Amino acid sequence: MVKKMMFNNFYNGKNVLITGHTGFKGTWLASWLLKLGANVIGFSDQVPTKPSHFEALNLKDKIKDYRGDIRNFLDIKNVFDNEKIDILFHLAAMPIVKECYEKPLSALTTNVIGSSNLLECVRQDKNIISAVFITSDKCYDNVEWNYGYRETDRLGGKDPYSASKACAELAYRTYFESYLKNLPVKTATARAGNVIGGGDWAKDRIVPDCIKAWSNNESVTIRNPNATRPWQLVLEPISGYLVLGWQLIESKLNLDGESFNFGPRAEEVRSVNALMIELRKVWQNSKYEYIEKIDEDFKEANLLKLCCDKALSLLNWQATHSFSTTVLETANWYQAFYQNDTNIWELTADTISRFEKEFMKRQSN
Question: How far apart are CA 202 and CA 355, in angstroms?
């Protein structure tokens, strides 16, 4: 019954393209869309990590799996030419802040030119009905104030990752105002905070770094224990993306061209230290130590919050899980994975089903 109720069964039978489908968020989005009855088409350059959630799920046998370079217009245009795309979720990007700092040209070309190529495909395509362009909460000019950034706040970025996401938003605004608002397709951008969850093995992310170390009975080094982040389970922003893709078409409001923040409730924002304390409750004998930041060239904000009132007001979306439940779901997924005899598809599907039930309860309140 939950499946039929979710998103008013909007995605059932739709052809949905996910760029970046082999990545952390992309695999969870693809899994949820399959559960909702969608025909999933993926575009990515490679499987980014090993282990890999994409490979553990055997997603290549469950979807149409395209490979190419998002920076090459013809690579992505080929997908639109071969498939009748109904809905697009654009996630493909260089997502790691430190890697973007080390490779600024790659960050800018991937995150800005890549997004522009997708925008051009949407402009030219005659079939697509809705498109959600995912950027980041770091697209804002972060001055580390104590209240959450709103969608109307200034864009900016002192590091290549943040700047590339702000530029991607500007590219979207240019395409919308010049072309897309005069076309039948409905589009929007989505900005999400820090996500955690099972299936993430990316380098230089705190939870994967901990899990990889602890699964080998090793200690891990943690920077900036007092830094706060809008931690949220990976399914939280994905639920927002799915609501947005659906409501762009079925809402009585005109959401075309809007941007939305998706993040945890303000009272659930926690520090790195709080995250470590919660993880230790599940991972016994876990070892870690804090160090002061030693790379003075690598700038990293200590405080970042989002205001998600707009999503609540216009989409009836709000975060589902508490901070403690978010960490528990994450840690339990990894522990099940490292038991080796776990069916990862069933583990992932069960996690989604639990989230769906709580999501529906909160949306009805």
Answer: 23
**What is the distance between the alpha carbons of residues 252 and 293, in angstroms, rounded to a whole number?**
49
Q: Which pLDDT tens digit goes with each residue over 299-354? A: 555 567 889 999 999 999 999 999 999 999 999 999 999 987 789 999 999 999 99
Contact criterion met (CB below 8 Å) for 198 and 334 = yes
Location of structure tokens 């979807």: 63
> Is position 222 within any domain?
yes
3-state secondary structure of 32: helix
Q: What is the pLDDT of residues 169-205, one digit of tens each?
A: 999 999 999 999 999 999 999 999 789 999 999 988 8
Tokens representing residue 111 in the block: 């995150």
pLDDT at 137 over 60: yes
Can you spell out the DSSP letters for 84-123? Answer: --SEEEE--S---HHHHHH-HHHHHIIIIIHHHHHHHHHH
What is the rounded distance in angstroms from the CA atom of residue 362 to the CA atom of residue 10? Answer: 20
Note whether 189 and 259 are within 8 A (CB): yes
Rounded-to-integer distance, Cα 238 and Cα 15, Å = 17
Q: What CA–CA distance (Å, rounded) separates 311 from 283?
A: 34
With respect to residue 158, please indicate whether it lies within any of the assigned structural domains.
yes
Length of the chain in residues, anyone?
Answer: 365
Is 257 exposed, middle or buried, given 0-12, 13-18 or 19+ CB atoms closer than 10 A? middle
Provide the total of helices (H) and of strands (E) in the chain, helices listed first.
Answer: 14, 13
- CATH code of 131's domain: 3.40.50.720
Is residue 7 within 8 Å of 239, Cβ to Cβ? no
Is residue 161 over pLDDT 80? yes
Residue 1 lies in a domain: no
d(C-alpha 110, C-alpha 300), whole Å = 21
Token duo for residue 299: 């700038």
Strands 219-223 and 287-291, by their bridges, are parallel
Cα gap 307→265, rounded to integer Å: 8
**Residue 181: strand, helix, or coil:** helix
Domain assignment of residue 7, yes or no: no
Parent domain of 29: 13-364
pLDDT for 221-278, tens place per residue? 988 888 888 889 999 999 999 999 999 999 999 999 999 999 998 888 888 999 999 9
Domain count, the chain: 1
